[in-house]
Amino acid sequence: MLFQTENTEPAAGKENTAGFSGWAYDWAEALVTALVVIVLLFSFVMRVSTVDGDSMLPTLHDGEFLLVSDLFYSPEPGDIIVAKTENFDYPIVKRVIATGGQLVDINFKTHEVRVDGVVLEETYINAPTKVSYDVTFPLVVPEGCVFVLGDNRNESSDSRDSRIGCIDERRILGQVVLRVLPISAFGNPRAGE
Predict the structure, then answer these.
(1) Alpha helices in 10-97 (DSSP H)
(2) What is the arrangement of strands in the sheet containing 46-50, beginning at the earlier edge strand?
(3) 48-192 belongs to which CATH class?
């Protein structure tokens, strides 16, 4: 009687093929999962925005890329936000100065910005506030709105301009949480105040 033994050695080349296809499958699965997570993250939690112009100098510069989040966001004075406006085709990047119910007064002779009677210490601005536009002060910010100014006050269209005015909170795309590009400026832009 002849006994046949089973060959347990893999055929030449089969092990490498199975190993490579298994590795490729695992890698592709990880890549697809990562892409789905990124798409969901940027669809529902965060988005990328670009600074357009010099209105936020010296804090933000033209062409910088920002990570913006509106998840559980409620605006507060000092926040840097990205918002849509009715009279501009592109989102604007500005700093929240006051929220609904607060009184804003700007003295263009002394260059003081007051909120509820308190002069703001604005270490982040490029130059004293001299340009007035067409909004009359003092101004009470309507409930559900924010009053915004650019850090480069004399080169910024913002809530002093009736084309922008006080921005409805529903038009806020989110708060700037991170400057991602250029890499040399990576970080939270508000931290530099």
Answers:
(1) 14-44
(2) 46-50, 65-69, 172-181, 80-83, 92-99, 145-149, 167-168
(3) mainly beta
Catalytic residues: 55, 94
Q: Rounded to two decimals, what is the model's pTM? A: 0.75
> Does residue 22 come out as left (phi exceeding 0), alpha (psi in the -120 to 50 range) or beta?
alpha
Kindly report, residue by residue over 104-125, the tens digit of the pLDDT: 999 999 999 999 999 999 999 9
Torsion of CA 127, 132, 137, 140, to 10 degrees: -70
9 exposed, middle or buried (CB, 10 Å; 0-12, 13-18, 19+)? exposed
For the chain, the domains span 12-44, 48-192
Separation CA 78–CA 120 (nearest Å): 10
- CA-nearest of 64, 81, 70 to 158 is 81
CB-side exposure of 162: number of CA atoms within 13 Å?
4
